[in-house]
């Protein structure tokens, strides 16, 4: 008897429900898309502070220890850059729209978020060429994305966990960043030469669209990888049907 009770307790402990405050959207709900817009919107409030019991870090700010930008050279840029102790500020204030899902064979979710101001700040170090001009420096940076629309596209596989339940594994998280304006600030360019540094920052900002165009693939990849990691912390711990009941 005692043994049975113990077994029951263990199995109760093992299958996790969604963290409290997360809403469930039913697969059969004809309004599942608007349900998900609201559910994801509300989950941002919880994700803002992180969910320690799921090992999910706070997304406000969302920290990146180290990013090596491996984007391939373009006609306007060839750059080696590294970001350290970088973070995204403003993610939790995003508005969620246009969510759609699919559950047949594979899991799919598309969504759009709008963020009034998303700042990517931290320590940079770079050397190379931007707009055909040499650039090098090391120090504080702030890349401010204004009126930003982000398109999210997640695809995943279903798999059976060791508990026999079905789980989602997000295999691909694609991010597309569409800002209305980008403001660059790189401190301490050219060994701290003030005149050259100011000139270069002005040049980057006057031509932000071209500059951002070449930087974007690296950012989209790094942000997507980070978002995938967070999504999988949740999806790997809560069975699919406890997130999306039938
Ligand atoms: C980054 O730049 C934006 C836009 O200029 C500004 O609003 C924000 O306060 C800056 N953040 C930091 C940490 O300097
Ligand atoms: C999830 O997918 C990745 C490939 O994207 C794979 O390496 C990993 O083993 C998968 N995890 C599970 C639990 O199936």
The Cα radius of gyration reads: 21 Å
**Tally of domains:** 1
Order of helices and strands: HHEEEEEEEHHH
For this structure, what is the CATH homologous superfamily?
TULIP domain
What is the 3D form?
Answer: elongated
Number of helices: 5
The percent range for strand residues is 35-45%
The low-pLDDT segments are none
The total beta strand count reads 7
Derived from helix and strand composition plus strand pairing, the structural class reads alpha+beta
* End-to-end gap: 34 Å
Helical proportion, percent range: 25-40%
Signal peptide: 1-15
Pfam families: JHBP (PF06585)
Keywords: Biological rhythms, Signal
InterPro entries: Haemolymph_juvenile_hormone-bd (IPR010562), To_sf (IPR038606)
Question: What does this 3D model show about the protein?
Answer:
It is a single chain. This protein is of the alpha+beta class and 246 residues long. The chain has one domain (22-243): Bactericidal permeability-increasing protein, domain 1, CATH 3.15.10. Helix content is 30%, strand content 41%. It contains five helices and seven strands. It has helices at residues 2-14, 32-47, 194-206, 208-235, 240-243; strands spanning 62-69, 77-89, 95-102, 107-130, 133-160, 166-178, 181-186. Strands 1, 2, 3, 4, 5, 6 and 7 form a seven-stranded antiparallel sheet that branches. Strand 1 and strand 2 form a beta hairpin. It is elongated and about 75 Å long. The model has no long low-confidence stretch (mean pLDDT 91). It binds 2-acetamido-2-deoxy-beta-D-glucopyranose (2 copies). The site of one 2-acetamido-2-deoxy-beta-D-glucopyranose has 3 residues, from strand 6. Residues 119, 121, 142, 144, 183 line the site of one 2-acetamido-2-deoxy-beta-D-glucopyranose. Pfam families: JHBP. One of its GO terms (biological process) is circadian rhythm. Belongs to the TO family.
